Amino acid sequence: MEISNHLMFAGMDAVELAKKYGTPLYVYDVNKIRENARSFIDAFQKWGVPFQVAYASKAFSSIAMLQVARQEGLSLDVVSEGELYTAMKADFPAERIHLHGNNKSYDELNMAFEYQIGCIVVDNFYEIDMISHLTRKHGQKVKVLLRITPGIEAHTHDYILTGQEDSKFGFDLLSGQAEQALRQLIDENDIDVIGVHSHIGSQIFETAGFVKAVQKIFEELEKWRDRYHFTASVVNLGGGFGIKYTEEDDPKPLDQYVGALVSEVKHQAGKRNLPLPEIWIEPGRSIVGDAAISLYTIGSTKNIPGLRKYVSVDGGMNDNLRPALYQAKYHAVVANRMNEPKTETVSIAGKCCESGDMLIWDLDVPTVQSGDILAVFSTGAYGYSMANHYNRFPKSAVVFIEDGKDHLVVQRETYKDLVKNDLPYQIPQTSCNVHK
Ligand SMILES: Cc1ncc(COP(=O)(O)O)c(C=O)c1O
Ligand SMILES: N[C@@H](CCCC[NH3+])C(=O)O
């Protein structure tokens, strides 16, 4: 029997998928998305505590993705009108949507009122005034969570840290701004502060930072009960659970993050004689990150003897910004040479006009040729969602695979799409004849 030299992904031949849909291409294993979602939900159910798992749609938002999230019983975290609009297009139940953002506009908040979404995560004083105005305008009560920055520095890249005192997100505990915001909110008749929110950062492996955040939150909740008779019926602990990109990464199984959070919440609530709140989390990366690969076609190579061999692919920082932005590391294989010995170490370059557009440094591969297919693993989170049009490359297509069938769920952009908002310039008469 011939042994295939091709990468199989979600039971399908990756090289055939590249041929069928073209490259660059994101391919998602829908069963893996479901499995990740269920790991969180099952873990909470085992603990028997009230909970919500809200998928952070910033990690990857598309109508198809949100249909799967809905079907798996997830709630949804959105951070913009665009993400909210996508959710509504996917018929996501409004009451299970939570709106985030450190600079929500009046229009965004208004849209949240119009759709009557589940809750708004309040981030700053400017927003409180707008929400207050909107409750009167719509004659509508609104549920909010108070986003606090607990003063925790988790171990991750500086750009994806969010729980430290010096952060653009949320109300700081240390300076007393969080307490001031709470006082302001509970004075409003139509604003129902259902609880608090904290998100300490992203791609975090250790549970210690989350546990510390829970402790800080409950210290504060105890004070707020004594001072204002405030009870949090929800404590949202954000997302940020790390995943494996390369051999260097050692994330915990998802249920262990849940276990660490739930046991600390129970401990803190018991110790301080506070009622056990509903525990909400907002994972993005850990639901979709390891559920996708990106397929590229290899084009040019440049060998600098004794120094480095650059192998260029037909995508790059336009479809995966993470290496350029955070020096994020990825692993990849040559999808049509799976059984060939690795003979050389090369660096994978993107095709954007930037020296920093490198997808992977020093990857061991078989001898490659133009036309080979490179498969980069774990690109399901913050790949498509952070894709951009730099150098006017159209955005890639997205394919879902489930039960041995492939489904195109986001079409590849065309050149027409790229210029569809461009308008011709009516050159003023005064400028005519200048460069004839
Ligand atoms: C408020 C908030 N919630 C949830 C997430 C999702 O994080 P992750 O994708 O790391 O789970 C983020 C992103 O870091 C965030 O800022
Ligand atoms: N976009 C980031 C993390 C998300 C930050 C959201 N607060 C990444 O790719 O790792």
TrEMBL record:
Residues bound to pyridoxal 5'-phosphate: G240, E282, P283, G284, R285, Y382
Keyword tags: Amino-acid biosynthesis, Decarboxylase, Lyase, Lysine biosynthesis, Pyridoxal phosphate
Residue ranges annotated for the Orn/DAP/Arg decarboxylase 2 C-terminal domain, each copy included: 26-380
Domain Orn/DAP/Arg decarboxylase 2 N-terminal: 31-288
Cofactor needs: pyridoxal 5'-phosphate
GO function terms (MF aspect): diaminopimelate decarboxylase activity; pyridoxal phosphate binding
GO biological process terms held by the UniProt record: lysine biosynthetic process via diaminopimelate
E.C. code: 4.1.1.20
Biological pathway: Amino-acid biosynthesis; L-lysine biosynthesis via DAP pathway; L-lysine from DL-2,6-diaminopimelate: step 1/1
Pfam family, one: Orn_Arg_deC_N
Protein name: Diaminopimelate decarboxylase
